[in-house]
Design brief:
By secondary structure, the chain is an alpha/beta fold. The chain is about 50% helix and about 20% strand. A hairpin with a 3-residue loop joins strand 16 and strand 17.
Length: about 900
């Protein structure tokens, strides 16, 4: 209703009223448009420009320059609220208008300053009644074109008395435009400029001191965090040289750098900030996911650096501006996370970024109109950056002090751990000695008793004693090995050895177990596996024995296969992969991860049923790691397991014989029903280029057909012997000249004499043994039957006299009984002194067995005295073998250093004793 009344009244007003109203409005509007005129006085040193600057953004680029200057084609200028203008538009012309009125009778000299140096193009027009003066400057032009040699753009003018001067600025830039205008009298400008120079000088002074101080620290400490810190200072200083305009003063002819320097230095600052934060905060250890993320995104500013030099630099600048702010807050967040994780040096780091953000935030607040322009806004970046630099230097110093404290504490803990380790090692050594001494009596007497005439029950009892003693000895050895590994006292040897010998030795140990369990046991060496290696054969043997022992322990039927294949190799070294595959009970997935932990088996029922400490796999893992390898397992419950490990070896620089040439002409027929045996022979036949024909059943017609192809060799599974007997007799005329190789999966009696060309390959079946047997057959070597050697045998000893220094009566009985079984003549003394005196009277012994721990004179000292006696009398040294309950590596080394030739640990193992005596007696 009110609206209708107003319209009704307005319709009755005369036309003259509206004309008068429009005239008043236009007059007021003109007064508003002329509000940019600044009335000067003689007493003002600094002119306030707030609300007095007009600006126009020429988006369409259609306002002619001359028309604006002559005021014939004026755009509509907008009024700026403050003396500092900021524009997001890039590469768009901007016109700035300032009008100055001097009502006084004297000319007024003034200095107009744009306190921002990174502007591409400035056209300055000084317009008054006398005419137009034009000045051209900007970073796109030589520094010499500037009216005054200064880091900023300074334009001196003079306002004539009682006159008006119009100042026009035509500005274009490839960068964000920030125009902090100031107008003052020359004296006031000089005063303000001195203060600004003091602030800038202080900033660069701080940066220089921090750079030099931390540069020398980096040279001394070589900490990569210091490198990134000084790189961050350098790039920040380079950016500030451009930002403050000092680069154009210091390098007036480096126009390219003055134009593009900030575009390059800004992204690089981000790169070094991120890298410094990653290293300083140890992000890889404390927060690995964030570390990987930051390591990836640092490529963004690097890419932006290249984009900034292209026509798409506008987008690069916007992204960099956003990226810088994001990174600052991200680094602050990472510092807080690191501090919460117990990293104390992060406190200075957090303070540094809070200071930086607290000051630099004034710039976006000013742009948004939240705070007015002031000196704090103008110098906020320099203040924040300077504080950040100093605080980060303090953070680095605190980090070094923390690392020193941690290192000192680490050294203390290591010393304490070493002391505990030494105490544990001493305890284990003593316990080993004390346990091994009675164990020597138990196992030695059981061995001697087993060589006498016993009935079946007595034989069972003595065998049980031996097996139980050996099981206990294995537990003791495992505990000792584990303790030595944990104490890092195991040092791998680097000696030449033959891999095939190691495989044959390990496989021979389990041949009996395979026969007892009727488990097929095969050892296959792939092609390109070198035999002549350099490494630690004893430790390799230990790993293999552990894995094979487990395989036989948990496999009661089927097969066990040891495979050796090259993993990686070159001319100097090779990494081999050893795989033990069985068809045993398998392992549940949930417990596979626990297998390589100390004293751990699949479950408690496994321990009760199969025995063992669970140390074997732990030791195997540690030894494999020492050999620069890995270990793992793949298993399916009730379907067997596959354990594998890798180890690195050096190659012996000798040529190895190839096996292909001598077997190329062989045509063999394989007769077997065993899939495992068939796979083994097929693999090697392909490798050695043997032409192989397979028969999986003994149907006469099939055999006749295969036999007609004139084979050079028959390979027969010994399990098919009875069925083969009749067929071979039927074809006697055709087969009597064909060599026949019988392969036994298990130890049995010798095969019957079928013809003169029958050969036997007994288990364990290895690549080396298979090759040697085939080569012997093809090259027509004598058919030698394999026979077992007697347990107690030393071939043709030159001198049967043995001197024994042993103080324990039980051990005396054991060693004396074993030596007499070997047909030797032992002489026993009870301490080292008696051994020395007897040897000096009668140096007639071929070997001396020396206990190390004896009363009056121990074995080490006795050995040294014997060696001195031999040197003085120019006698040939008699082999001295340590026979002691000490089993650690340091005891072995001590024995050898004292002059002994070998070291045997108690309890005495007959085979080891025989092997050692055979070596030194002959």
């Amino acid at each position: 209703m009110q609206g209708k009344k107003i319209l009704k009244i307005a319709s009755k007003l005369p036309v003259q009223f509206y004309s008068y109203f429009l005239a008043v409005y236009l007059m007021l509007l003109c007064q508003t448009l002329n509000a940019t005129e600044i009335l000067l006085t003689e007493h003002e040193d600094r002119i306030s420009l707030d609300g007095k600057i007009g600006y126009f953004i020429d988006f369409k680029r259609d306002f002619p320059e001359q028309g604006i200057i002559n005021k014939t084609h004026l755009p509509r200028f907008n009024m700026a609220k403050s003396a500092t203008l900021s524009f997001k538009e890039i590469d768009t012309p901007i016109w700035i208008k300032i009008e100055l009125n001097n009502p006084t009778k004297e000319p007024i000299p003034l200095t107009i300053a744009i306190n921002y140096s990174w502007i591409s193009h400035i056209e300055f027009y000084d317009i008054d009644s006398s005419g137009v003066n034009k000045t051209l400057t900007g970073v796109n032009y030589p520094h010499s074109l500037r009216p005054i040699d200064h880091r900023s753009y300074i334009f001196p003018i003079e306002i004539p008395p009682q006159n008006t001067k119009t100042l026009l600025f035509h500005i274009k830039s490839k960068f964000f435009i920030r125009l902090p205008f100031s107008i003052s009298k020359p004296e006031a400008f000089i005063h303000d400029d001195q203060i600004a120079n003091l602030v800038i000088g202080s900033y660069f002074g701080i940066m220089l001191v921090m750079f030099l101080y931390n540069f020398f620290l980096w040279i001394t400490i070589r900490d990569i965090a210091y490198f990134y810190y000084i790189a961050m200072i350098f790039t920040s200083a380079a950016y500030q040289l451009n930002h403050t305009g000092l680069s154009s003063v210091l390098m007036p002819n480096a126009m390219w750098w003055n134009q593009y320097g900030p575009m390059i230095s800004t992204p690089l600052i981000v790169v070094f900030i991120v890298q410094f934060g990653r290293k300083f905060l140890n992000m890889r250890g404390i927060m690995p996911r964030f570390d990987r993320f930051m390591g990836t995104i640092i490529w963004i500013p690097i890419i932006l650096t290249t984009i900034a030099l292209t026509p798409y630099h506008i987008y690069a600048q916007k992204i960099v501006a956003f990226f810088n702010l994001t990174i600052a807050f991200a680094q602050l967040g990472f510092g807080i996370l690191a501090y919460r994780n117990g990293y104390k040096p992060a406190a200075y780091y957090i303070t540094a970024y809070i200071s930086f953000i607290s000051f630099t935030v004034f710039i976006p607040l000013y742009v948004l109109g939240v705070v007015p322009y002031s000196g704090l806004v103008h110098w906020s970046f320099q203040i924040g950056s300077g504080l950040e630099t100093v605080l980060l230097s303090l953070a680095l110093a605190d980090r070094i002090n923390t690392l020193k404290r941690e290192k000192f504490e680490s050294v203390r803990q290591i010393a304490e751990a070493n002391a505990k380790s030494e105490a544990k090692s001493d305890f284990l050594a003593k316990m080993s000695h004390e346990i091994r001494t009675p164990m020597n009596g138990v196992l030695g007497m059981a061995t001697l008793l087993n060589t006498t005439k016993l009935n079946a029950t007595q034989k069972l009892y003595t065998t049980t004693i031996q097996n139980s003693g050996k099981a206990l000895l294995n537990v003791i050895n495992d505990v000792l090995d584990l303790s030595k590994i944990e104490a890092k006292k195991i040092k791998l040897e680097n000696i030449p050895f033959n891999l095939a010998d190691i495989i044959d030795e390990c496989s021979s140990i389990f041949a009996g177990s395979a026969s007892e369990k009727h488990v097929i046991f095969l050892c296959s060496t792939k092609d390109n596996v070198p035999n002549a290696l350099i490494g630690d054969p004893a430790r390799l043997r230990q790993i293999l024995l552990n894995l094979l022992s487990n395989a036989f322990k948990f496999t009661n039927h089927g097969s066990i296969t040891l495979t050796i294949a090259p993993e990686d190799q070159n001319d100097q070294q090779t990494t081999l992969k050893f795989t033990v595959k069985d068809t045993g009970i398998g392992i549940e997935p949930a417990v596979q991860k626990q297998l390589f932990q100390s004293f751990t088996q699949a479950d408690s029922s496994i321990t009760r049923r199969y025995g063992g400490t669970g140390l074997g796999l732990t030791i195997a893992k540690q030894l494999s790691s020492l050999m620069q390898g890995k270990i793992g397992v793949e298993s399916i419950p009730n379907h067997g397991s596959k354990f594998w490990f890798t180890a690195n070896f050096m190659k012996q620089q000798i040529s190895e014989k190839t096996t292909k040439e001598s077997l190329k002409s062989v045509h063999a027929i394989l007769i077997t029903t065993s899939q495992e045996l068939q796979n083994f022979i097929e693999q090697h036949a392909n490798r050695w280029e043997i032409h192989l024909t397979i028969i999986n059943n003994l149907k006469p017609f099939e055999f006749n057909e295969k036999l007609s192809s004139s084979p050079t060799l028959l390979i027969v599974d010994y399990d098919l012997m009875e069925a083969m007997n009749q067929i071979l007799k039927t074809h006697l005329e055709h087969t009597k000249d064909i060599p026949i190789l019988f392969i036994q999966n298990f130890h049995r009696e010798e095969p019957p004499e079928i013809n003169d060309n029958a050969y036997l390959l007994q288990p364990p079946i290895t690549t080396q043994k298979f090759w040697e047997k085939l080569n012997a057959i093809i090259t027509d070597k004598p058919n030698t039957k394999e026979k077992n050697s007697p347990i107690f045998c030393i071939k043709n000893p030159k001198n049967k006299n043995i001197l024994i220094a042993e103080d324990n009566q039980v051990n005396q009985i054991v060693i004396k009984g074993l030596l007499k079984k070997l047909g030797l003549n032992p002489t026993i003394v009870i301490n080292g002194k008696e051994a020395v005196e007897l040897y000096q009277k009668k140096p007639i012994f071929s070997v001396i067995l020396m206990d190390c721990e004896m009363p009056i004179l121990d074995g080490y000292s006795a050995t040294q005295k014997i060696r001195e006696f031999e040197r003085e009398n120019k006698l040939e040294p008699t082999p001295i073998i340590a026979l002691t309950a000490h089993a650690l590596q340091e005891h072995r080394e001590k024995s050898l250093q004292s002059g002994m030739n070998a070291h045997l640990s108690k309890p005495i193992i007959a085979n080891e004793l025989i092997k050692t005596l055979s070596t030194w007696m002959n």
